[in-house]
């Protein structure tokens, strides 16, 4: 089965003086649905694009990297036009970087086997429209739903499904020259100020043992990096989420997240699950830190109203072993259990599957059409 779109960047890239991929990139298709209460759900011809930083960028006539850490090498790339002349971007091979799609499902593997060796991939992808720009989801007074399979994610692993306020064409990127825009996954930002600082709404950060949804508003470069989150275990619901629990993470379930508004202002972020035809209500966030310093609930709502980009990733956490998500007061995992080395040796095949992504008016995404 062919599930691929060829990126044709030539004309747009030449016009913008950008570096070109040395070969065309084959991007996996991932159909999604945009829904409304009046019109039902309409299939969108969307695809996924890997983050820009996962591609090799090297000299036009050689194999010298044009990157220096996460930025461009100043000697090859003192400015945009010189950089475009000196350097090319290699097209990404999605499968070898842990990303594949089938029908309306995308699977992300943390580790991939290359020549019998286990390699760290930890991919991050974004949802791209047919126009070569990121899909801007406006979810104020709306909802988004997704089916997830987290059954192979152990303590310490994080399957993430979230929104960042990137710009639609991927052109905002203060750390390096614009080399390919959204069609090559450029322009990432989040509330930890990776790339640059921007509003972030974590719809799902989860493994088979624990999960949370968290708002991270920003005002300029001041972000609520801790955020306002809801984790059922941390709220005392210890039998709610996990293998064999009320939300049974050994099987697929649907995650529905709603953004209620009143008078154009975000008033609540709420969560429910659907599994085996049963709707299971969960928590609600109705405040989000200091409105004056980070924008709070108001700022989060304004970003949702302007539109945000859907990002998906799988990662683990050498600094804290994801304890903020799943250990101590936050989940049933033991301290240190979720270290990357434990995961790599004991769960090398860990992967997350996101499917059946639908967004639109509140109540419109789960009617089964
Ligand atoms: C998706 O592509 C098909 C086939 O080219 C087209 O008929 C349809 O209108 C497209 N859908 C949207 C929402 O643009």
UniProtKB/TrEMBL annotation:
The keyword Signal applies. Belongs to the glycosyl hydrolase 7 (cellulase C) family. Its EC number is 3.2.1.-. Keywords: Carbohydrate metabolism, Cellulose degradation, Glycoprotein, Glycosidase, Hydrolase, Polysaccharide degradation, Signal. Residues 1-17 form the signal peptide. InterPro entries: ConA-like_dom_sf, Glyco_hydro_7, Glyco_hydro_7_sf. It holds the Pfam family Glyco_hydro_7. Gene3D superfamilies: Glycoside hydrolase, family 7, domain. The keyword Lipid biosynthesis does not apply. It catalyses: Endohydrolysis of (1->4)-beta-D-glucosidic linkages in cellulose, lichenin and cereal beta-D-glucans. One of its GO terms (biological process) is cellulose catabolic process. GO terms for molecular function: cellulase activity. This is Glucanase.
């Amino acid at each position: 089965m062919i599930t691929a779109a060829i990126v044709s960047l030539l004309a747009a890239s030449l016009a913008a003086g950008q570096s070109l991929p040395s070969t065309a990139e084959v991007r996996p298709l991932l159909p999604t649905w945009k829904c409304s209460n009046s019109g039902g759900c309409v299939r969108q011809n969307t695809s996924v694009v890997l983050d820009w930083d996962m591609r090799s960028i090297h000299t036009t006539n050689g194999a010298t990297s044009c990157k220096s850490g996460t930025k461009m090498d100043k000697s090859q790339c003192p400015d945009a036009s010189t950089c475009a002349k000196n350097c090319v971007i290699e097209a990404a091979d999605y499968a070898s970087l842990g990303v594949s799609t089938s029908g309306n499902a995308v699977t992300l593997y943390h580790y991939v086997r290359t020549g019998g060796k286990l390699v760290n991939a930890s991919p991050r992808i974004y949802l791209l429209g047919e126009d070569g720009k990121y899909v801007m989801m406006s979810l104020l007074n709306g909802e988004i739903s997704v089916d997830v399979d987290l059954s192979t994610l152990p303590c310490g692993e994080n399957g993430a499904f979230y929104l960042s306020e990137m710009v639609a064409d991927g052109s905002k990127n203060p750390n390096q020259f614009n080399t390919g825009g959204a069609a090559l996954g450029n322009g990432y930002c989040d509330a930890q100020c990776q790339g640059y600082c921007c509003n972030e709404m974590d719809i799902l950060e989860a493994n088979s043992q624990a999960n949370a949804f968290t708002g991270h508003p920003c005002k300029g470069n001041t972000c609520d990096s801790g955020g306002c989150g809801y984790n059922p275990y941390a709220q005392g619901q210890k039998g709610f989420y996990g293998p064999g629990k009320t939300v049974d993470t050994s099987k697929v379930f649907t995650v529905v997240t709603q953004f209620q508004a009143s008078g154009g202002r975000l008033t609540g972020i709420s969560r429910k699950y659907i599994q085996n035809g049963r709707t299971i209500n969960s928590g609600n966030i109705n405040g989000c830190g200091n409105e004056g310093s980070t924008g709070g609930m108001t700022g989060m709502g304004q970003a949702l109203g302007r539109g945000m980009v859907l990002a998906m990733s799988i990662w683990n956490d050498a600094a804290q072993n994801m304890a903020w998500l799943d250990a101590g007061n936050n989940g049933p995992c033991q301290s240190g259990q979720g270290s990357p080395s434990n995961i790599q040796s004991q769960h090398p095949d860990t992967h997350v599957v996101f499917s059946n992504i639908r967004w639109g008016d509140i109540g419109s995404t789960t009617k089964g059409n």
